[in-house]
Amino acid sequence: MPGHAVSSRSSLVTRWPALRARCRSTAQTCGRSATGAPLSASSKTSARRSRTWRPSAIRPSRLAAAGARLAGSSIDALPGLDAGQLWHPPCALSVLSILDDSLKTSGGHLPMLQSITRGDSMNIAVTSASAHAAQRRRLITALALAVLHPGIAADQGFPARPLRIVVGGATGTVDDAHARKIGDRLAASLGQPVIVENRPGASGILAAEAVANAKPDGYTLLLANVPMLSINPAVYRKLPYDAQRSFAPVSGLVRGTPLLLVSRALPVRTVAELVALARARPGKLSYGSPGVGSVLHLAMKQLEQLHGLQLLHIPYRSGADAVNDLIGGRTEVQVNWAAVAQPHVHAGRLRALAVVGGVARKPALPDVPTAAELGMPAFDATAWSGFVAPAGTPPGVVARLNREIVAAVRAQDYLDWLTLLGGEPIAGTPAEFAHLIEAEFERWGKVVQAAGVTVE
Asked: Do you know which Gene3D superfamilies this protein is assigned to (predicted)?
């Protein structure tokens, strides 16, 4: 119906300035300017408190419903709308609302998508054509995805060159081993080499900064962990990246709980005996950790706070260095990862007193109780790692990487290896990983504040 198309187009053009204003407002609500640029520090604080609209909150049913509104007649372009704005669901739904008002379905005809191009503006061209119900459903879904997630088809031809995984630990560390095992599987499934790049030091800040500043094309991934995204923002007064805005979550990888360990030379076999000895010798018992503000350092601060203890902290360059001095008797106690400590516990070189976090004992150490079993649920240093890409990476590329990473994590040989390390797989959707990151950001922020740990 040509007349209807002209009328719809005219109505849309007339109302377009108001729509752009609505997009500008809703984009700012999501914490970005109308051009997609980050807001000021004060605006960030306000945006962080607003949880109403998140890309992960859009369900497939809502996508389909929104797409149904697009079943109207011809429009040629929506000028001047930055594609980045449409990543914000309120802005996208504003677009759909105006289209719903402006475009009406012709009787017995379905507008068929001819082209969607993305750049500085989003162009949609449709024409009337007969179609049966299955075609209609497919069109509605595709159109809704295109509008709500511009760049959804950007994974076509990806990857065309090698990828890299940046790790915040040195070669031979647990994170490095995870990255190499997953990287090998990704190389096989994606058909491109995957290079592991180690950038150790500064609690993962160097690695996180490198990925935050990388091109958002999916070719650079960060094996992120609790210090990088949850602890560093609370410990360091200034960071060269924004833990909540600089990255696009791809998939969780693994979750683990460390062990409370003592030297064999220390005459204690339970947490209660350790607490009694530490109270009798305030400031005398020493513990090592991989550095100020690390998960293992904060775990020991939790133990001190829970029981009113005074222990001497000795920072090391790595958890492996710290455990070596514990074995040698140069320190008396520490919290360290099961992957590092289990072999020494089995060999009788160290004594494990508790699993620090979770509700389940470790299968490899069935006689070691959890802290929760001992009446200390707040003594919890559960940590995790997972993959993130630079913010702005096309959703289609993120989705492709997510599929391949999840498949790699679910491979039986990787799961068997993970069990030996005492870890638990947490691979899932980007939305699930984003939710975990947000929750952990708040949890560890409280732990750091209670411990009073800061680094200039």
From this structure: Bordetella uptake gene, domain 1, Periplasmic binding protein-like II
